[in-house]
Design brief:
The structure is a homodimer of 118-residue chains.
Chain A (H helix, E strand, L loop, with lengths): L2 H4 L9 H11 L2 H13 L4 E2 H8 L4 H13 L3 E6 L2 E6 L1 H15 L13
Antiparallel strand pairs in A: 1-3, 2-3
The structure holds a DNA duplex (30 and 30 nucleotides).
DNA sequence: ACCCTCCTTCGAACATCGTCGAATTAATGC
DNA sequence: GCATTAATTCGACGATGTTCGAAGGAGGGT
């Protein structure tokens, strides 16, 4: 497993600014819980209403706000099904993010500190 | 490689709140650049002054502020050497963080969406 | 046409963040 | 003791984020 990341090819396309945006998006307890619930929901996704119950956010407008931020950074998608909106985690995005982070820190303690370049 | 994470044992000990704090700490372009520079510096670490030049932050107080935040979340350590402070990335912390994230999203598209549990 | 549910957008209150310059502490050398 | 370099802490400013209730659009049933 984890084979799709060892190629490192996808990591190159990510810049610091975008990574920072995604980390910031995930860096709120409320949004991290939202994203986690979405990830756990898997391919099927979750309607906003169910997401609200599961995550425990009192105001619907607050949840909508956080969802919007998650969508802006490309971490979450929404699809309309009749009157309800299905929210889904975008797995490749998380995959790239993890790849970037793992690439930065070599992902284990044997990191040799390769680069001196800026 | 990446073997130290596949055990998943370390991931269990992390809670959402702490992960969110670390992600938030990394979620600022300035702090992500700082952390990146530290990671690239490797085991030797970097004095604050050199870090400032390398990252391109104008005010020393601003850098100090960001450094403090990074330290509070356990991502960075400082060690005094005479008059200069050496800053170092704490690799295991990043390792755990990446592990948590990877565990959440299964780290590749074949994620089967296992859990329905809250 | 009407209502009902689902969700978003608006407006505002309140807190937190990011940045800076000035003042402060830490450690060394003369 | 005094000056010097290194880095932090303090105080303040504007900008941004979080949260909420109220109001607004979207879609479907009767």
């Amino acid at each position: 497993m984890l084979a799709s990341r060892t190629g490192v090819g996808n990591v190159i396309s990510m810049n610091v600014e975008q990574v920072a945006k995604q980390l910031e998006a995930l860096g709120s307890p409320a949004r991290l819980r939202i994203y986690r619930a979405l990830v756990r929901a898997g391919h099927a996704g979750l309607p906003v209403r169910q997401l609200q119950e599961r995550v425990g956010i009192s105001a619907a407008s607050t949840l909508s706000h956080h969802l919007h931020r998650l969508i802006l950074t490309g971490l979450v998608s929404q699809e309309r099904q009749a009157t309800t909106l299905i929210c889904r985690a975008i797995y490749p995005a998380m995959n790239d993010l993890v790849g970037f982070l793992a690439d930065e820190c070599c992902a284990d303690e044997t990191c040799s500190g390769t680069g001196e370049a800026a």
